[in-house]
Amino acid sequence: MNRPPTVDARRPTHAAGTTVGVSAAARRVLGLPDLPEQSEARAATQRALERVGGPVGLTVAVAPTAAFVAADAAAGLEAAFVALGLTALLAFAVRLARREPPGAAVAGLVVAGVCAGVAALAGEARAFFLPSMLLPVVFVVAYVVSLVAGRPLTSLMVNPLSGGPRDWCPYPALRRVYVVSSVVGLAMAAANLVVRVVFYLADEPTVLAAIQVTATSAFAVHFAVTLVAARRAAGTLTVPAPAPTPSYR
Question: What residue ranges are annotated as transmembrane (predicted)?
């Protein structure tokens, strides 16, 4: 004899039988409207932001640079080094308190130290941004080489998270996403490099700091958009038909 399906009386359900969370039930009891469902794009953007540390992580990452530029503008280069050192140590402590990987916390100190060393050797604040200008150069080269090799750079970063097949090359939809995304990434990296060089030559440390923050956020958004597009493409894939085998008579 078949038993009717049981329903957990402790958890309210919709009329269609789907379970309602405690928060949603409380909102209905209080007469509040339901919260809108989070879109896939917004969820992917949040995940991309989390990959760079979230709002707190981004703030901690840019704080030493902001302190250096602000102190240099207010009191000169020596004060900027002091402000940088104090802020970098504070950022290190915050990273450890947030239980981030110790390697990332140490890397933050090393990067701050290298940038400060270059600025000290050059005797000018703008030299602080010389080491970070190497990053867009690396990305430009990596994008070009990966596109020429037929393995777009974004495929290496996004495909393992998109749910796509390991060998995505036979699928035109995924290939299109990764090629277009890599071309966009190449253009962004090239523009980032050009703008940095222009304002470095113009001796504008404040603008260079703003570019550094903006570039980090822009690449996080680019990653999120690529991830959404790749997931949608992966969800529509069909297994390609096998190539016909030649018959020999």
Answer: 52-71, 77-97, 104-122, 128-149, 177-201, 207-230
